[in-house]
Design goal:
The chain has helices at residues 11-16, 18-28, 72-89; strands at 7-10, 32-36, 39-44. The protein is α+β, with helices and mostly antiparallel strands.
Length: 100
């Protein structure tokens, strides 16, 4: 695929003006293809825009969801039934705040 927006320079010219070429790529965001005997050997491209550092989203990809997060009522009822069974067997006591 040919990039019509990319300019080409010979390797000897690139060597002589390397810092100026790099500054031009940074400033214009326009890539440069370096050639040797008319054949491309390298491309100098501007870096991608860096993501702004923010505390928002800083925990992204650090959490794994397991199980059902949509229906917590069933999970609570299962826990409650388990505790009821433990109480009946005399293993544990938990006041669920119920009255009468």
């Amino acid at each position: 695929m040919v990039n019509l927006n990319m300019r080409e320079i010979a390797i000897s010219q690139f060597k002589a003006t390397c810092l100026a070429v790099l500054e031009d790529v940074r400033r214009t965001r326009r890539p440069v293809r370096v050639t040797r005997f008319g054949k491309p050997i390298a491309e100098v491209i501007p870096p991608r825009a860096a993501a702004k550092e923010s505390w928002l989203g800083c925990m992204r990809d650090s959490l794994e969801i397991r199980g059902d997060i949509v229906g917590p009522v069933r999970a609570f009822r299962a826990m409650e039934n388990s505790l009821t069974m433990q109480i009946a067997r005399g293993y544990a006591y938990l006041d669920l705040g119920r009255r009468g």
